[in-house]
Design a protein that fits this description.
Helix content is 38%, strand content 19%. The protein is α/β, with parallel strands linked by helices. It has one domain: Rossmann fold. A hairpin with a 2-residue loop joins strand 6 and strand 7. Helix 1 crosses helix 9, helix 4 runs parallel beside helix 6 and helix 6 runs parallel beside helix 7. The termini are far apart.
């Protein structure tokens, strides 16, 4: 297939490009380097220096014999995006091209405005580009489990069957975001669902939990193929942050009581899930929604897992509760359904002591490059 990846320079975008290319797909990646610029602007560098997309694509072709096309520009720029669609003629488009950080969206007015403008306009542009060039193109949009919030009922997979005053209907599951970023993801879902109903678009929305992990099979230990790996409080996901903190000798920053529970998955499983979504496209006028995670953990569970694995690699890991900078429930019910991707063939990479230990060992080799000053939480929700 011909697969267009929007946001192809990101933590998930570049590994997805290599994964789909390795399977024989023709791949084109688009990015405007927002995350690179934001990391410079906020002084929160990645642990690994990553070559630009052109350099990555050239190296990938050298080691794999497969070409990845690169286009630099913003998905929020509709004429640019439309040109890419006309030129590449994709069968499927993977939409990662959004500001990906909840803390970034809560930093201040300019970051909030950028999050709204970029995320919503990008999604609108994707819908229009598909409609204008080929309505049969399958849109695979990366959503987030954070759209659901933490309701005091089981979280269904995207939709819920309800009965009210003697009548029944099937509706999108109620959602209650915990940040402005998550609010834009809800609006993305609403926007695409509207165009599914009105224009007959084909959309799969992947409600993904926080991702952890450093390497994928396609990287093969080749540093020129590594993806970005943030460990700061703005762009770093919680387990990745904890791994780096443990190596740096910084107590693991458990927000509040640490009871916040979410669904997590290994970066390798993200690639599996996107591949399965592409291989099983939505029909015309259908929105498929999958809850994309493999296991649920509380923040305390993750901290304890890092502490246990630390003993295996000779690290004494301290855990410390810090005031929660976010506005969120720390004790709550959490039971989301996640059978759809398993039914399609997802083979989960579960979080074992060995996986955590290997992540620690990989970061130990970069210990001298860790910036301890960017680890502590500074962004306040209220």
């Amino acid at each position: 297939m011909r697969v267009l990846i929007l946001g192809g320079d990101g933590y998930l975008g570049w590994p997805t490009a290599m994964y789909l290319s390795s399977q024989g797909n023709e791949v084109c990646v688009v990015d405007n380097y927002f995350r690179r610029f934001a990391c410079v602007e906020k002084d929160v560098p990645s642990l690994f220096d990553t070559p630009n997309l052109f350099e990555r694509a050239r190296h990938w072709q050298e080691v794999s014999g497969k070409e990845i096309m690169v286009r630099i520009g913003s998905v929020a720029d509709y004429p640019f995006l439309l040109d890419v669609f006309h030129e590449f003629k994709p069968d499927a488009v993977v939409h990662y091209a959004e500001q990906p950080s909840a803390p970034y969206s809560m930093l201040g007015h300019s970051e909030a405005r950028f999050t709204l403008e970029n995320n919503l306009l990008s999604t609108l542009n994707v819908a229009y580009a598909v409609k204008e060039t080929d309505p049969s193109i399958h849109i695979v949009k990366l959503g987030t489990m954070g759209e659901y919030g933490t309701p005091n009922i089981d979280i269904e997979e995207g939709f819920i069957d309800i009965e009210h005053k003697g009548r029944k209907d099937r509706l999108l599951f109620p959602r209650q975001a915990g940040s402005l970023y998550h609010t834009t993801k809800i609006q993305d879902t609403d926007l695409l669902y509207f165009y599914v109903r009105v224009w007959g678009l084909r959309v799969t929305d992947l409600m993904q939990g926080p991702v952890y992990g450093i390497f994928t099979e396609e990287m093969g230990g080749d540093e020129d193929l590594f993806t970005v790996f943030n460990y700061d409080e703005i762009f770093g996901t919680v387990l990745n942050r904890f791994i780096v903190q443990a190596v740096a000798g910084v107590p693991l920053t458990v927000y509040g009581k640490g009871g916040q529970t979410r669904g997590y998955l290994n970066i390798k499983d993200t690639l599996q899930c996107v591949g399965l979504a592409i291989a099983h496209p939505a029909r015309k006028g259908e929105m498929k929604i999958y809850n994309q995670f493999t296991e649920t953990f509380s923040v305390n569970d993750l901290a304890n897992a890092v502490q246990r694995a630390g003993k295996d690699v000779g690290i004494d890991v301290e855990i410390k509760s810090v005031p929660n900078p976010r506005v969120e429930l720390e004790d709550h019910y959490y039971n989301p359904v996640h059978t759809g991707l398993l039914d399609l063939g997802l083979e989960p990479t579960l979080l074992t002591n060995n996986i955590v230990a290997k992540m620690l060992e990989s970061v130990i080799r970069r210990k001298d490059e860790i910036r301890r000053d960017i680890i502590q939480p500074k962004t306040q929700w209220n």
